[in-house]
Structure formats: C-alpha cells, structure tokens
Design a protein that fits this description.
heterodimer; A: 340 residues; alpha/beta; B: 319 residues; Rossmann fold; elongated
C-alpha cells in the first residue's frame, strides 16, 4: 500500500533530523574496520617480547589509535554520503492569519470589469485578481496560505503552507482561462476543510474571490453554517462586480424580484450575515477598489499568530570533511612519532 | 612505501575538500507541466500495485508521478493541470521539486475525478487546447506531459478534428515539446459508476453511453462537408457495429497517431522506472551551469589514500 510507505517516511523524518543524499555510499563504512585489522605502522619484529611490555597504557593507546582511524573513515564516509540536516521548523510568535483563498474559476472571470473581452490596457478580472493577490501574499510574511479553485466543482490547488513559492504558483492558476459555472458552496466547503486537521494557532480566514453567486439549497446552507462555526473561520467576500451587473448592494426594483434566483448576490450576502461569524464584503469594480479591499484585509487580520519559521536543509558535508581532517592530522602526528 | 606521506596527502586533500567553494559546473534539470486526464474512464482499475491489488489508472499516475518527482535532480520544476471534456486547466505553475516536495505530494494525492466540471472526454481537443494553454500561461519552454487513456467519449467525428500538426508547425507560436503518457491496459475493462457521494454503484452499460459518432459523417470518405446536423439519421450504420464504448482500454494506436501529428513523444505507463526514463529523455533536459559542490572529488581521493595507509606494505613492494 502506498499510504503505508509514506507514513513510514514521514515518521522517520520526524524522529531524526539528519539524512543522507546518497545513502548507498554508507557501504564504505565497512572499510572503517581496516584500522582493527591492520595499522598504519611498519611491522617490527621485536627481539624479545618483554622489551615491549603490554601494559594497560599501551593497550589503551593501541585502541585509541584504532578508534581514531575508524572515526576518520566514518566521518569521511558520512561526508561523501552527503549528510544533511533536514528542513527544520521553529515556532515563533508574530502577527498574521491562516488564509485560504477560494478562487472563482468560472468563465465570466475571463471578462474585464466592463464586461468586455480583455485587451492590453484593460486586463481580465482574473488577471487583475492574480496580480493583486500575488502582491498581498508577498507582503504578509508570516501567514499560512492555501488555495482552492472552484467552478462547477471545487478543486484542491495548494495546501495551507508557509512556502510562498507554492502559494504564488497556485495563484498563477488564475492565468489559465475560466471553466464553467459558479458553485460557491462547494468551493467554500473545500476551503473550510483545509482547517480540519490544522491546530488553531492563528485566526482563520476564508477569502472568497468571485464575480458571481449562486443560490444555495437548505442542505448547503446548513453545512456552511456548521463548518464556519466549527472551524471558527471568518469570511471576506471580494465580489468582482461587472459594470452594470447586479451586486451585493443592489436593491430590488419590485418585491417580486427580491429572491435568490433573480438576485443571488444580494441573497448570498444576506445569508453570510446570518452565519454568526466575522464577515466583511467588498464590492469591487476597479483594480483600485480591489487594492483597497485587500489593504483592509491586511489591516484587520493582524491577530497574534504562532507561525513556523523554516530553516532550509543544511548540508553538513564540509563539517564531516573537517572532522575527518582533524583525525587524519592526529594520525599524521602519531605516525611522525613512530620509532624509526 | 608505507610512509607518513600517504597520510599527509590524505590530509592535504581533505583540506582542499573543506576549502573548495562551489564551482560553476554544467548540470541538467527538467521543467514539466503535467496535465492529467480526470475523466471517468480513469477510474478503471486495470493496474496492479506492488502488493498485487488492482488500482485505478488515476491512482497509478499519482503513485508513479510522485516516485518520479522524488528522483528528479533538485532545481527541476513541476507544474500541475487537469483536463476533462475538451478543456485543460492549470492548478499551479511549476514549483521546485526539492523544497516544495510536500506541497507537490499533497496536491497530487488530492487529484480526484470529482474535480471534473463536465463529464465527457474529448482527448484530441483537450490535447490541442493543452498545447495552446502552454502558450497562454507562458510555459512555452516547459515540457508538456499529457496523461490519458485516449478514450474519446462520445466518439469523435474525424472530420471535425483540429489540426495538431499545424499548431505545432512552429510558425506563429513556438513548438511545445512534450510526451503523451498512455495510461491503461490493452484489454477492455468495465468503467465503474459512482454516485454523488463517491460510492460505487456498479458499472456503465452499453445503454448508458453513446456508441457512435453523434454528428453525421459525409458519405464520401475524406471530403469535409462542414457541419452535418446533429441527427441520428445521418449517423452511418457501421458506426453502431462497434458497441464497446461503455468499456475502456488504452487506445494506444490512436494516441501514437496524435503524438506523431503533434511532434510529441509517446510512452505507455507501466512502471515508475519506465516513466522516469521516458521523462528524462535528452530532448527534455535543460542544461545550465549551476554552482556545484565538487568537494566530493578531493574527499573521495582522500578516502582512497586513507585506505592505502592501512594496506600492508607487501602490496607495494616488488621483490
């Protein structure tokens, strides 16, 4: 079973912080036994054994020299096998949040804010969203970010991670053309699922970036209510409104129009207000207003946060060679004292 | 010969190993964009895992791709996309295989046929659109790795096929290099059917799927007559003879033809080692100079001298 293989690897990584890049080189360790079978000195025939009495001191000296030989071989082998310290994380406290972007990948994201086909001067909504989210991620050093995409179905893009390179690559998914419809509910549920096995070490934020809404049935309303409360997540909705289109704040002309089918944005917003969680909505219809919404988010989400500082893997080969050098130099010294 | 000099040479070599800075040295790495078929036929369990239990085509891809990624040289990058029907999408642009391995693993393991936003699978259009997507998302120099079983559902009308050769002619856009990975077995298998919650509710039957080409074919072979109305009466009789569209196998000949038209390589997915060697073909490698730690060279020589220092004198004496 592949799963077993993985968990085994992970548990080893947790237990020890050291690993080798070329473990097979460790076979050379066998040669570390050489000092116990042979030695660096010339064979001498003593005329009379009693001339070189075997005292505890000579025995001790003999063993020390052998062990130094062994250690010289061992440290050199460790260096050649590429000993390194695995990536380490240290807990630190700072300010920030755990943020999951739930990105609308529907077809309408291909249009400009004016509802047109994008050209060089007026990029598509998804392109503007990508550029500004990317800047936002760069400015928040301690946050964990995760990314979910959704259209008709939700899709897992990147997990909650402190690796900004991954989050940036995931936001780049907005450069690929939009797909089908807008199924907000499924995207949000997948976004919330990111917090499932995550310890509560900082405030949790779902940032829904969409340019449309959909009606929610009772079952999905119930799930969302439960999950938002269970995971204690707050919600930001950055609604990318198309010029002339309906928005969150649009008022119905007649009371007959005031239903989720005709005005899904208004009713989704109403529903979010009933969730009993911190909720902010931003109606965005220019790149500037999107920038303002993100600044507001940046300002609000600065609660204390326990974050992990990553120390990248650290090669220890030079250190191994240095230790080997010390042992070899000692052996040189011992050898220099050899009776001629 | 068993002199102090052997040990001194070993020591000198070790000093140079400690002091040697990383030097610019030519090395190889790879940049891939994996696009994976997540249509329903990928749920066919016609592979076996190491324990001999059947696994689905999609699971086989996940397992072998992760194993290949683990063996790629650091500095290589992998991006991920999926396709269903005729549309591919990028999940993320290429990320580095060593420092971002755990995220690669999580996202690849999360691939699921339920991500599919529509149900059909239109391989040739998806391939065509994947090649175009590479230009759109500025991955022109990345190697496209296209995983599919080649099962067109519903069957394609060859008259409306896009021209892969023209797209890859290199005239308006640069040629994308890449490989099609044929996934599946040569024998026909049943396609599992799942309900909304992912529970297996049996298999697709002949009545569930269109068995023939739904748009009409012209009577004269090779003459394109434009779009013939979507009308079963125009569907030629002989298309109905082949009624195995509810079963699935690897359409290898078809994929090989597509690969040839689009100037791509072809490989049949069998083992992760095979996949690794197909993917690390020299056409796909990128040579560049990288600051490389070469201290292992003096260190290895020092090791040799240390061994010599312990070997008996007799080995060196000629008498």
């Amino acid at each position: 079973m592949p799963a077993i293989g993985w968990s085994r690897k992970v548990s080893i990584e947790k237990m020890m912080n050291f690993a080798f890049s070329h473990p097979w080189v460790l076979m050379l360790l066998l040669l570390g036994l050489l000092p116990f079978m042979m030695n660096v000195f010339h064979h001498r025939t003593a005329s009379w054994n009693q001339l070189i009495p075997q005292t505890s001191t000579t025995k001790w000296l003999d063993w020390t020299i052998k062990i130094m030989g062994l250690l010289a071989f061992a440290s050199l082998t460790f260096g050649l096998a590429g000993l390194y310290q695995t990536e380490q994380t240290f807990e630190r406290t700072g300010t920030g949040a755990h943020i999951v972007f739930v990105l609308d990948r529907s077809k309408s994201m291909n249009e400009t804010f004016g509802g047109r086909v994008p050209d060089e001067n007026t990029p598509a909504k998804r392109q503007i969203a990508r550029d500004l989210l990317s800047l936002f991620v760069d400015e928040r050093p301690h946050d964990l970010f995760g990314v979910v995409g959704f259209s008709t179905q939700p899709f897992f893009i990147s997990p909650l991670t402190e690796h900004k390179s991954v989050t940036q690559a995931a936001i780049n998914s907005l450069t690929s053309p939009g797909l089908a419809f807008t199924n907000v509910h499924k995207g949000l549920v997948m976004g919330l699922s990111y917090f499932k096995d995550q310890p509560y070490t900082g405030s949790r934020v779902i940032v829904l970036v969409s340019d449309g809404a959909a009606t929610l049935d009772h079952r999905s309303q119930k799930t969302l209510r439960e999950w938002f409360q269970r995971h204690r997540a707050s919600l930001y909705w950055l609604f990318l409104r198309t010029e002339g289109g309906l928005g969150i704040t649009s008022e119905p002309e007649t009371s007959a129009d005031d239903n989720p089918r005709i005005m899904p944005e208004r009713h989704l917003d109403k529903f979010f207000h009933t969730l009993g969680i911190p909720y902010h909505s931003f109606e965005v219809d220019t790149p500037e207003s999107l920038q303002q919404a993100l600044s507001k988010l940046d300002e609000l989400e600065n609660a204390p946060l326990v974050y992990n500082e990553l120390i990248p893997r650290n090669s220890l080969t030079q250190l191994c060679y240095f230790i080997a050098l010390l042992f070899v130099l000692t052996l040189v010294g011992v050898k220099a004292l050899e009776a001629k | 010969m068993k002199s102090i000099w052997i040990l001194i040479i070993a020591a000198l070599l070790l000093i140079s190993a400690v002091l040697l800075p990383p030097l610019p040295f030519p090395s190889k790495h790879y940049n891939y964009f994996f696009i994976i078929d997540i249509t329903r036929s990928m749920n066919v369990p016609d592979y076996l895992n190491a324990e001999g239990d059947p696994i689905t085509r999609l699971d086989k891809i996940k397992f072998d791709v992760l194993s290949v990624i683990q063996q790629l040289p650091c500095g290589s990058r992998v991006g991920l996309g999926v396709f269903t029907e005729r549309t591919p999408t990028m999940l993320y642009s290429p990320i580095e295989v060593c420092s971002d391995y755990s995220e690669l693993r999580k996202s690849i393991n999360s691939l699921d046929w339920r991500m599919a936003w529509v149900a059909d699978s239109n391989i040739i259009m998806a391939l065509y659109n994947s090649l175009e997507l590479m230009h759109t998302v500025s991955l022109d120099n990345t190697t496209l790795v296209f995983f599919t079983d080649g099962h067109e559902a519903p069957p394609m009308n060859p008259n409306s096929n896009p021209d892969l050769a023209e797209l890859q002619a290199g005239e308006s856009e640069p040629v994308i290099k890449g490989i099609i990975i044929g996934t599946g077995d040569h024998a026909l298998s049943r396609i599992p059917k799942y309900d909304q919650d992912g529970i297996n509710v049996g298999y697709y039957t002949a009545e569930d799927v269109p068995q023939g080409i739904m748009t009409g074919l012209s009577v004269n072979h090779g003459v394109k007559t434009g779009i013939v109305p979507h009308n079963p009466r125009h569907v030629r009789r002989e298309n109905k003879v082949d009624s195995t569209e509810h079963l699935s196998k690897l359409r290898e000949d078809y994929l090989k033809t597509l690969a040839e038209q689009a100037k791509l390589h072809y490989h049949h997915l069998q083992s992760s080692d095979g996949l690794l060697s197909a993917l690390t073909h020299q056409d796909f490698s990128e040579k560049h100079t990288q600051k490389t730690d070469l201290s292992y060279i003096p260190a290895a020589l020092a090791f040799l001298f240390l061994v010599l220092a312990y070997l008996p004198d007799k080995l060196f004496r000629r008498q």
